[in-house]
Design brief:
- This protein has a single domain, classed as Porin.
- It is mainly beta.
- The chain is built from two helices and twelve strands; from the N terminus they run H-E-E-E-E-E-E-E-H-E-E-E-E-E.
Length: 239
């Protein structure tokens, strides 16, 4: 009896193992085989992205900075086909407007770096050639403003919270020249689209709004928070 039961179990497992092959063998003529699932990243559950593009200052930054450029590199963990967590580094740079003080010709630039931790939600199935995703999360932002020189004057009024300093009255140019920095917490959020080049490699284009809090700076008319806002628009490769 035991031999009969063992033989029956072996027969059941054999049929279960062979069922897919048997079903394929008897598939109706003219019916195409099922499409192979899309390839995963060559790193398995992990992914990478590299990108670059333009960076737009917003709000009070528009009166001080020119349109800049940005580059980004990130790594992510894919929890499933629709959700991932990304750690990304962004570097962007903006030239100072030459008339930022309404006096003299200013030479300088502004740099913003950040490390952010983002959630990525993909809206369409992974098999779609074109896709849309939402991205956003918190970050740590490091900003510095460097004034290299001011030509044509020996002294100027310098009071602008969004240039991270405010002096009473007119000050010598030597006081203005230098680098001022601030590290702060911020948030970002945006949307992107991807286009499959050769699965799993995809071209991506995204725009994200970044907001960061800044220090409180006292002026003759009151105290101001030197918060900052930017929108980098990037294109790159994601896999």
């Amino acid at each position: 009896m035991r031999r009969g039961l063992a033989g029956a179990l072996v027969a059941v497992f054999t049929l279960a193992w062979a069922a897919p092959a048997m079903a394929a063998a008897v598939a109706p003529a003219g019916v195409p085989p099922a499409a192979a699932p899309p390839l995963e990243s060559p790193l398995g559950r992990f992914g990478l992205n590299f990108g670059g593009g333009a960076a737009l200052p917003l709000a009070d930054g528009t009166k001080n900075y020119n349109v800049g450029w940005a580059v980004a590199v990130g790594g992510q963990v894919n929890f499933n086909a629709r959700f991932a967590i990304q750690l990304e580094y962004l570097y962007s740079q903006y030239g100072l407007k030459s008339d930022v003080f309404n006096s003299g010709n200013v030479i300088g630039d502004h740099t913003m770096e950040d490390f952010d931790l983002n959630g990525i939600v993909t809206l369409l199935p992974r098999s779609s050639r074109a896709n849309v995703y939402l991205i956003g999360g918190p970050g740590v932002y490091f900003r510095w403003i460097m004034i290299s020189r001011v030509d044509g004057v020996t002294a100027i009024p310098y009071c602008d919270p969004f240039l991270l300093a405010c002096f009473t009255g007119t000050v010598p140019v030597s006081t203005v020249v230098g680098t001022r920095t601030v590290t702060s917490f911020g948030l970002n959020g945006g949307v992107g689209v991807t286009f499959t080049i050769a699965d799993p490699t995809r071209l991506y284009i995204e725009a994200r709004y970044h907001y960061m809090w800044g220090p409180t700076i006292d002026t003759a008319t009151g105290s101001f928070h030197a918060n900052a806002q930017y929108i980098p628009i990037l294109a790159g490769i994601r896999f």
